[in-house]
Each structure stands twice: as structure tokens, then as C-alpha cells.
Fold this sequence. Notes:
single chain, alpha+beta, two-stranded antiparallel ribbon
Amino acid sequence: MRVADIMTTDVTSCKQTDSLALCATHMRDLNVGAMPVMDVDNNLVGILTDRDITVRAVSQGIDPDDALVEDFMSPNPITINLDMDVDDAAEIMADNQIRRLPIVDNTDRLIGIISLGDLAVDVGEEDVVAETLEEISIPVR
């Protein structure tokens, strides 16, 4: 099965110059744990997760209304294309200990996203998902 068969295509993103509070509100409203981050030219420049907001900002006493997304996002995200096999996408997630992969077209424009949850729900390959989750969860020291 290809990534294109299960990816989410209606992806909301935030700008790198948005406040963490604004992005967190969007994430809450959409019930998502991460958002792609775009620059002024609408190029994908990062990923912001709920963990970035809580652990890297709020827990450090930083006011999310005054903090910019670009200062807390993970820059240069790993991306994949829509023709990739879902097993290969799961392997990339496991190897890099990430739960989400942005999907770009041949001009590097964001066209979708796939998450570990998508693999579990849509693919039904419980063994692949369990193995991927196990590898993602190994502590990095």
C-alpha cells in the first residue's frame, strides 16, 4: 500500500512567525499533536509538536503568547513522497524516532501528512505499527 492511499490531505499549517499560543489553539481545535510550519513563501521549514510547546517552552516559563514558532519547532523535517510504500514510511519513522512524516510533491510543496496513528488505523498492520512504536520509544541518550 502506498502512502497516498492513507495520508491526510487536508493539512493545516502554521507560519514560523506565528506565536506558540496561536499554533497551540489551532492544534487544540483540530485535535492534532503536530503542525507543519511554513515560511512566508509557503515552503515547509519545520514541524511543531505539542511536546515542543509544553516541554521546550511552557515548562521553561516562556509565555506562549510572546514566543515564536520558529524558536521552538524542529527545523528541516524529514519528508517523503506520496508514492512511498507505507512499510518504508514506518521504517523511516522508526529509524528517526518520529511519529509523523510530511508528504511533499516533486516541487517540495506540502501535500499531506502521515502519522503512526494513520498506519495503525488505515493499514491494519499491527505488527509493523507495534515495531515502529517500540523503536520510536527507545530513549535517546
